[in-house]
Amino acid sequence: MALAAAGRVLLQAGSRLGRREVVDGARRFANKRVEVEADEAAGIAVMKLKNPPVNSLSLEFLTEFLISLEKLENNKNFRGVILTSERPGVFSAGLDLMEMYGRNPAHYAEYWRAVQELWLRLYLSNMILVCAINGTSPAGGCLMALTCDHRIMADNPKYTIGLNESQLGIVAPFWFKDNFVNTVGYRTAEHALQLGLLFPPAEALKLGIVDEVVPEDQVHSKAQSVMAQWMAIPDHSRQLTKNMMRKAMADNLIKQREADIQNFVSFISRDSIQKSLHTYLEKLKQKKG
Ligand SMILES: CCCCCCCC/C=C\CC(=O)SCCNC(=O)CCNC(=O)[C@H](O)C(C)(C)COP(=O)(O)OP(=O)(O)OC[C@H]1O[C@@H](n2cnc3c(N)ncnc32)[C@H](O)[C@@H]1OP(=O)(O)O
């Protein structure tokens, strides 16, 4: 119920933004920040994150992504989605820092609701989600990958993945933490979360953050072959199993969604947190010069 209502809000937001679909033969649709290659006959879509320069999860991106995902969810012919970046090198730089810095409480609340919605929609999706991680994927980018059923990462030691929030002076919320704990186990999560560690592919594989590491040029073919394996399982049994494994954790957020938004707004509005974000943004800028 809450999910459906939030979805409607996002769809309305989408039409307010005046997004127009570009339909190319009925197989591709794209908006500005998400490109979807939809093979209806095969039942598989590839969703490419396309929000330059670093695929940060801005409010506009989240809105467009959720609209595209909903279109696929609503078409029963689609059973599987491969998530990847249109820009190899960066899968996603995570939440958009500019949405969390120097804005007003109403904006923070709107943004956080959209972040929650992204997680809930992906985490509870009935479709098979395979993540083709073709670049670096910190924080919110890692979270997006963690919602998927199977993760394949490009074998490039320059790429890292993990929840690095504490390095920014912020804290991974409980549902980020729960998703991570359920993936890697309590001790590894406790250690990695406190230090805000980012792991190169080989280490991420060892810890179970990703399921496979393959040469960079094979990430997409591997994702297709993994998808074929998953598609061989009857939907009803796979979906019921997925729901059994995930529902309790998602319900935990759903039942305290409003409180979580309020927590986020008061946390992110603190002067000390704004200062930390400022320092981190400056560091990112200096890296260039
Ligand atoms: C009680 C509850 C409390 C809840 C608290 C809040 C919880 C928040 C949870 C999750 C948080 C996040 O997801 S925070 C985001 C974390 N992300 C990062 O730390 C990544 C930062 N970025 C990088 O490390 C690098 O940009 C990169 C490795 C991803 C890519 O490097 P590259 O060299 O290719 O690009 P640049 O670094 O030059 O960046 C280009 C350009 O993009 C800007 N940028 C980068 N990342 C972000 C971002 N996440 N949001 C917004 N903007 C970003 C960067 O500043 C550059 O901008 P300019 O060109 O203007 O300088």
Automatic annotation (TrEMBL):
It is found in: Mitochondrion matrix. It catalyses: (3Z)-decenoyl-CoA = (2E)-decenoyl-CoA; (2E)-tetradecenoyl-CoA = (3Z)-tetradecenoyl-CoA; (3Z)-octenoyl-CoA = (2E)-octenoyl-CoA; a (3E)-enoyl-CoA = a 4-saturated (2E)-enoyl-CoA. Its main location: mitochondrion. The keyword Transport does not apply. Keywords: Acetylation, Fatty acid metabolism, Isomerase, Lipid metabolism, Mitochondrion, Transit peptide. GO terms for biological process: fatty acid beta-oxidation. CDD domains: crotonase-like (cd06558). The keyword Lyase does not apply. It comes from the Eukaryota. Pathway: Lipid metabolism; fatty acid beta-oxidation. It is an enzyme of class 5 (isomerase). GO terms for cellular component: mitochondrial matrix. InterPro entries: ClpP/crotonase-like_dom_sf, Enoyl-CoA_hydra/iso. GO terms for molecular function: delta(3)-delta(2)-enoyl-CoA isomerase activity. Its EC number is 5.3.3.8. Pfam families: ECH_1. Homotrimer. Belongs to the enoyl-CoA hydratase/isomerase family. Key enzyme of fatty acid beta-oxidation. Able to isomerize both 3-cis (3Z) and 3-trans (3E) double bonds into the 2-trans (2E) form in a range of enoyl-CoA species, with a preference for (3Z)-enoyl-CoAs over (3E)-enoyl-CoAs. The catalytic efficiency of this enzyme is not affected by the fatty acyl chain length. This is Enoyl-CoA delta isomerase 1, mitochondrial. It comes from Nannospalax galili (Northern Israeli blind subterranean mole rat). The gene is Eci1.
